[in-house]
Amino acid sequence: MSEAHQIDGHHGHDAHGHHEPTFLEKYIFPLDHKYIGMQYMLTGMVMALFGGFFAYSFRMQLAFPGISVPGFGIVSPTEYNALVTNHGSVMIFWVAMPVLIAAFGNFLIPLMIGADDMVFPKLNRLSYQVFLLSCIVLGISWIVPGGGFGGAWTSYPPLSANGDYSMTPLGSSLWLTAVALEFAAFLIGGINFITTAMNSRAPGMKAKDVPMTVWMICIASIMFMASVGPLIAGAIMLLFDQQLGTGFFDWKRGSDPVLWQHLFWFFGHPEVYVVLLPATGFVAEIITVFARKKLFGYQTILYTAIGTGALSFFVWAHHQFVAGIDPRMANIFTITTVLISIPIAEMMFLYIATLYGGSIRFQTPMLWALGFIFEFLIGGVTGIFLGASGADIYFHDTYFVVAHFHYTFFPIAFIGTFAAATYWFPKMFGRMMNETLGRIHFWGTIIPVNFIFIPLFITGAAGQHRRIYNYNHFPDVSTPDLQTLNIVATVSLVILLCFQTVFLFNFFWSMWRGPKAPANPWKANTLEWQAPSPPPHGNFPPDNMPVVYRGPYEYSVPGREDDYWPQNQPN
Amino acid sequence: MIVWLLIAADALACATCQDPDPRRSAIYLDMTVFMSLTPLIAFAGGGLWIWQRTRAIR
Amino acid sequence: MGATMSGSGSRRESPDLRVVHPPPQARRKAVPNEVLGMMMFILTELMLFSGFISAFTISKAQAPAWPPPGQPRLPVEATAINTAILLASGAMLWYAGRRFDKVGPAAARVPLATAVALGLGFVTFQGVEWARLLGEGLTMVGSTYGAFFFLIIGFHGLHVMAGATALIWQGTSLWREKLTSDGFWAGRLFWYFVVLVWPALYWKVYL
Fold first, then answer.
1. Does the pLDDT at position C92 exceed 80?
2. How far does the CA of residue A322 sit from the closest CA of chain B (Å)?
3. Which superfamily, per CATH, for A3-530?
4. ipTM
């Protein structure tokens, strides 16, 4: 329970000899999991602003080719490639991963399982510092001579392996270094999450009393750790190709560039589920609280998550259907890809079944959770088109693919995050967010996002390839109709970005000026709501750590006066 | 199996961009199976061991 | 724990509200923190080496001749002896762990020192072989064959050095009688991984 005391004895929160941490200790080099989580979250928000700005710049170029983009200037082809590449890398590696897993994992796991801190607080701090270093290295890669790396976030050789092809000899190596550092950071963090969730749970909390969010973050961390090794191996080989001149991926020396695609996607596809599972965990938490109903099929959801995790190691080659693979492999991977939609679809059905018959409260977190289910289903259904190898030969590398994975990643990385941020904000900062602004932000995000990506499905199906700088050079796929759709998408993106200022204002204004939050504003059962808001150092009173008597989703139990039943109440 | 039958035989992989070297494509297939099964076996082994220890301390 | 939780609501349709549950007992850990963290780390390392080995196997399979003509042969017999040295080091560390838990920390000192010495002997032997191969013209840039050799074997060498450093550090705390049983267990696990992954690498890369 109090493992943090043993590992970090001088920093414990015992009554005797307790010294008040200085500003530096509390906010810059904290050991407290809550502050490390907030550091991750704020860093992720800053990186999201960069990623959004990149998207804005290259979408403006696509909609209005050749114009001087306000705030950026004229986008050159090299800059366009760098913008697309870094938009993808930033949004996945530096926004989705740190915010969904690291920020909420750090903040929530010890609170939800009733522990006072992570089991390895110093490793936790190291994890954030390595992550910050990776952000700095990535930032440097944008400003070195030659500009940022422009070989797409998948970084396929030979384009990425040779400075003569990519024309960014420094940028590509710095990008790879940043990615490798970022993985090291999450590796350290993941070890911490799993060990904490295994060993620091409150007395009485058995495996099936663990909140779904904790389960999901742990499964995601295990998947991350099991899949990241080959990509680190590949990254080292690619770095050697770039800097030492070895020929690991050089076809001229008898090697196979497709090898990198295998190493990359072995990680790259589980990665999708690594970021998906925490978001589904948040949604599970939110819909039960706001439907005032027990989570339908707790065990089934858990098994579907584990099944997804296991199957996700068998799907990666569907990214290489046209790269030159064995036809037997295309067969196997089509089947596994279609199969993996079953557990995820089942999970979504169980969430909808949870809503059935509940007394639903449409507050902002619930709106986001419902928006997640709706938007993610569109992404999932369009994935079946791409998973079937026959259809994929046509759709490969078109905007259909772009629209498909944005319909999965946008719900995961943003809708899931907004759901979690609005839901746990009272616990994080001890103040309530403004409900009206939250609703304005919700509708201002959910409507434009569909107007961005539904047009892209159409342009992709019409044959627009995704890696084109200027469609005016390709008259057969740049009809005025398609260009109109591109303009619709870009204008919607600008509207979407404008509405994010509402969220930023709401977030920072409420942090200092919002009304004080009670300990349990949503009347939820899980242990984090039984701690004060915001939780002090050590989370719970040291002499009164929580013990768990029941599962986390006992809402509207017949015969009880309250419609909720906190996990730590004896009866 | 049903899914298998639903896939048109011609549409298994891009015919023009298929790997022309049968030896290499076979070794890719082997490596694919190896890479997919390794984490699952490793994790299943570790998980079983932890589960047994959990049983033992109860 | 199981008995006290028999009425847990997550598995029951209509909980009896009148029952007052006794407070659950404190948790006992199935696996110590350090060991569990190390197991997760080793999972990642295992996949890292799987990635290397897969890449190596594929590159080897599509080469017309392996090793390429004009490239030096790898020292198969000498490395077989070296493999035995590393395995002996692993066995010695297993013995050290047994003595630590069964007899007492002081009894683990000699086997631990022997294990570390054998491990360092392995690295030194490898270094000598590397110097000889470099002299014969096997480099990373010259061919994919050389590149994979130095990459995979070099990465393993780095792991041996890291593991030996960790064991030396644990040895100093053993001498100062500060080494915990769990910490030593985690350190041993990493060394076992380094030792046991080597025969696989030897088989794939040398033979």
1. yes
2. 6
3. Cytochrome c oxidase-like, subunit I domain (1.20.210.10)
4. 0.89
